[in-house]
């Protein structure tokens, strides 16, 4: 079984607390290395006092699953295709609302979206009935977006979640997803339009935006797994970046921090601003001196106030203006 031959499927659940079954090639999630389902099973030793050293059978309790999905930020169809990128589809299970607006798919954090996901992972063996299939249901995610301007030159989304583990893996055949694979190039982080704290003069080497969401898989004693639905209990959207130090007449992050200045954090890249990140109320909370290969820099941290974040990616229908896909009941175009 080879790592590079593994396969992931993801389907948004139509009902809270009820994992989906019968996932198909239409639910393909094209993931980066580092993605996977890991069982998190409670095992308690039974060590009784009985006049001698003895070890009784351990108790095997709740069966949770830790799920990691990593994907490049890109569109996955023609500009007017109506195909939802994998990473945007999965973000709905991180309590984001998804809509379309004039060729863009649009994600915004939501307090009322409760969509969960079912995730399947096939091990890397393409022979018939030769792949191990692990499953996780009721999955909800925390999220992080990473922008590596000075290194790999690409943006990634990493989703880390918990849910109900489906039990011991079974031997299955990997679906043939040849016709489902998307081949759009990942847009490079060059020619980027960007603002940090409302200032376009920052020269960023790297940037991260993270949800800092706490995820809790609830206990359900009546289920054979001992695990019920999953809740997102907190969200504190923050950012961090490394930027070259500059003359304070150009940029002055410490002055902005002490003045409680808030401003836009905007990023747009790709052909025709293919992907856009927009936050209107970014605030700097920490500035520390550092260096990058001997060049002085700042390590800056901050937060995105008011839950104000909009993520856009080309691929929505041009005729749409505000069509919504935000509820937990999924339409066929967004639930695969």
Walk me through this protein's architecture:
The chain has a 17-stranded antiparallel beta sheet that branches. The two termini are 26 Å apart. It has one domain (3-175, 184-314). The chain is mainly beta and 336 residues long. It is built from two helices and 19 strands. The longest helix is centred in the N-terminal third of the chain and has 6 residues, at 86-91. Residues 326-333 have low confidence and may be disordered.
Features:
globular; two-stranded antiparallel ribbon; 336 residues; mainly beta
- Secondary structure category: mainly beta
Largest sheet: 17 strands, antiparallel
Q: Give the strand content.
A: over 45%
* Alpha carbon gap, first and last residue: 26 Å
How many helices?
Answer: 2
- Which percent bin holds the helix content? under 10%
Number of strands: 19
Mean pLDDT, all residues: 92
Helix-strand pattern: EEEEHEEEEEEEEEEEHEEEE
Shape: globular
Computed over alpha carbons, the radius of gyration is 22 Å
| Low-pLDDT segments, ≥5 res | 326-333
Number of domains in the coordinates? Answer: 1
């Amino acid at each position: 079984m080879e790592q590079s031959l593994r396969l992931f499927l993801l389907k948004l659940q139509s009902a809270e607390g009820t994992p989906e079954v019968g996932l198909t090639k239409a639910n393909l999630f094209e993931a980066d290395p580092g993605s996977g389902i890991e069982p998190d099973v409670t095992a308690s030793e039974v060590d009784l006092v009985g006049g001698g050293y003895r070890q009784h059978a351990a108790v095997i309790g709740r069966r949770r699953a830790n799920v990691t999905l990593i994907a490049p930020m890109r569109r996955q169809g023609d500009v007017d295709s109506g195909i939802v990128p994998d990473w945007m589809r999965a973000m709905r299970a991180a309590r984001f609302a998804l809509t379309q607006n004039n060729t863009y798919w649009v994600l915004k954090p939501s307090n009322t979206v409760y969509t969960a996901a079912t995730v399947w992972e096939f091990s890397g063996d393409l022979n018939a009935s030769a792949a191990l299939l692990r499953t996780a249901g009721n999955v909800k995610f925390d999220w992080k977006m990473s922008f590596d301007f000075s290194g790999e030159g690409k943006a990634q989304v990493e989703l880390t979640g918990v849910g109900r583990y489906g039990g011991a893996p079974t031997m299955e055949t990997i679906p043939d997803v040849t016709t489902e694979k998307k081949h759009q190039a990942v847009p490079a982080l060059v020619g980027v339009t960007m603002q940090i704290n409302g200032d376009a003069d920052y020269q960023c080497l790297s940037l991260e935006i993270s949800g800092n969401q706490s995820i809790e898989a609830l206990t359900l004693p009546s289920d054979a797994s001992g695990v019920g639905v999953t809740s997102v209990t907190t969200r504190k959207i923050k950012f961090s970046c490394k930027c070259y130090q500059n003359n304070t007449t150009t940029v002055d992050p410490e002055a902005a921090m002490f003045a409680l200045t808030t401003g836009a954090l905007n990023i747009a890249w790709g052909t025709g601003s293919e992907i856009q990140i927009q936050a209107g109320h970014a605030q700097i909370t920490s500035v520390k001196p550092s260096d990058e290969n001997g060049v002085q820099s700042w390590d800056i941290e901050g937060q995105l106030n008011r839950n104000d974040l909009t993520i856009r990616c080309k691929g929505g229908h041009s005729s749409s203006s505000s069509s919504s896909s935000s509820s937990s009941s999924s339409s066929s175009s967004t639930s695969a």
